[in-house]
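step: validate -> pass
step: tokenize input -> pass
step: predict -> running
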Amino acid sequence: MFLESTRRRNPALVEAAVRLHREEVIRPNTYVLDADTIAENARVTAEAARGHGLVANVMTKQYGRNPRVSQLIRDAGLTRFVAVDVDEARVLWQAGLDVAHVGHLVGLAASDVDEVIDHRPATVTVFNLEQARRLDEASGRSGHRQDVLLRMYDPVETYHPGQHGGFELADLDAALTQLASLRHLHVRGVTTHPCLDYDYADEQVIVTGKLALLRAAAERISRAREGFVEINAPGITSVTTMSITKAEGATTVEPGSALTGSTPLHAVSDQPEVPAVVYVSEVSHRHGERAFTFGGGFYPRGRTRQALVVAAGQGQEAGAVLTAAHHPAEAIDYYGELDDPEGVARTGDTVVYAFRNQVFVARSRVAVVEGLMRDPARARVTGIYDSLGRLLDGA
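step: predict -> pass
step: emit ->
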């Protein structure tokens, strides 16, 4: 999906990925992160957020919750982070980062509540009154008053599979009355997901009805009490889309894929953020007119279109671009397949992909490369991690 734009806009990353695989510094089934470019993407993102008057909480799951990359993002100006679940929060806490938002998209289990409250996040999302009461009790035990965001839900809207639930607008006034009785909670605002979506057929960003839902919910909260109401509006956050979400009333956004230059927009046009991640594999074997590549990091919604196959002794410019065969979501990710009727790919060849990724759901390694923007010839891997942010091998 991003192969052409990555080769054109960040050829040093592709060349480094090929070299590192050939030198056996990295193995097949490894995501390679260009830390310098990600940091620069973070800088321009932070600048855009300030310009639009938006708070930006970084989502790290797409690049595997990587602590080193997250620290570089912080140093570039994006200092607040959002954890998609408590496991992600733990990795970020351990790295000394400010986890400003916990509980969305995944709410808190009963066993996690006290730990989260002890870390004093700026906000925690709750999906129902039961979760709110549990947080209130934990906040009371800790002597803390916790701000919460209400996860809003509209039954006529479309949600990703497995991401349903939350407060409905028709029930919100009654819920606010009950929430007002909780002494250790403060309703700061509302959130849901995705607020922006992407139409692949028309190649354009869509404003979903969920933003109107959040505005209506925020108005109800404003009528119930005085003060600022946060509207957290995640979904395809990038420099380009910030003006859209701001115009729709958002106060908070969650840049994630944009930091690696891999939102759907980046596949069809040059955006301010530069592509900064590739997935490296190797040809395992051939069968018929197809070459099979080692898997472990393919994502069912990744929209993998092509791969670059580079033979021993070649640079990436001499590599062959082959079409990637589509696997249904129910397939186990043992291998990728490439259409290769001419027999270009041979066992052991390096294969470089660039697709829409969610590293935290993969069983891949993540190699952090630093120095590519300064001196590509001297760039090096500063750490190899698992897909959940744990260091496997540090340089």
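step: describe -> The chain has a mean pLDDT of 95.
step: cleanup -> pass
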